[in-house]
Amino acid sequence: MRVPAATKSELLDLLDAALEAGWTLRSACRALELPERRARRWLRRREVGRLTDATPGGGPVHGILDEEREAILALFEQWGELDRSHRRLAHRGSYLGLFWVSPSTVRRVLVLADKHFRPLPRPPKGERRPFPEWADYAPNSIWIYDSTHLTRCGMTVLIIEDLVSRKWVHHVVSVEETHTQVQLAFTQALQAEGLYDAALERAQALTEAGLLDPDHDDGASPILLAVSDNGSQMIARDTRKFMAMLAIAQHFGRPSTPTDQAWIESLNGTIKLEWPHLLQIDDPAVLRAELDLVRAQYNSVRLHSGIGYVTPDDEHEGRGE
């Protein structure tokens, strides 16, 4: 254990006083609970004025040279605004033939010199786009969907939720996240809710009237609103065409703003929190069976705080008032 120089000096003064009083060095060290060998070493170091301990480690043979340290600092001043990373700056130094050191060495030199990269300014968040006026705040008017991952099983679960009633409408378990899963989920969800035929009829009527173009979702008289984030499977061209063919309008949240999809994010978190055994399942067939049971319990048994502590089924069917 390292001892401060001031403490060493006070102990040696006590030793000097004991020796002057006739004590032997060994007796004095025993009384002070100080090893005699350490006391003799301190006495020798006091004679040459070196009571303060040296910095540990000494001079490592792999340490960088002063000129290398200066080159790192000079390169930071020249390229820091462009590279903005100690890793990139380390490679920049070798690329220019100025020095060859590890990124951690560059970082250490910059920290000791109190040099820091200026972080890139974060782009301002835009205002949240409101839902269209035609979207009624009633069940089967606004659906929200997202994917959540169950990594132990290696599966992705795409879940559709009714934003108003909080009903877990449908889900699809798959190893992929593409427009195919989106189309399958919405097709089965519309069939389960008895809306599929109505959606086809609405789309057919709009097509005959020249109001619906499969390559351009004009949002005319949609049967419902599908809310999601900007995932690749949500914004895919095939997904857009599929939604248009069923007269479903799409509504996207702001990029990197999960709170715009707070309803489905909350559902995903609740599933993993209240049914943690799902995270331990490694068999896809077992996972599908368990999710069906959890969905039934979530919809018909669990009281939801967001809809006045009734079940989503009650709210969806109008029994929650």
TrEMBL record:
Domain (Integrase catalytic): residue spans on this chain: 135-320
Signal peptide (UniProt feature, chain positions): none
Protein name, entry field: Integrase
InterPro entries: Homeodomain-like_sf (IPR009057), Integrase_cat-core (IPR001584), RNaseH-like_sf (IPR012337), RNaseH_sf (IPR036397), Transposase_IS3/IS150/IS904 (IPR050900)
Gene3D superfamilies: Ribonuclease H-like superfamily/Ribonuclease H
PANTHER family: TRANSPOSASE INSF FOR INSERTION SEQUENCE IS3B-RELATED, TRANSPOSASE INSO FOR INSERTION SEQUENCE ELEMENT IS911B-RELATED
GO-annotated biological processes: DNA integration
GO MF: nucleic acid binding
Pfam families given in the database record: rve_3
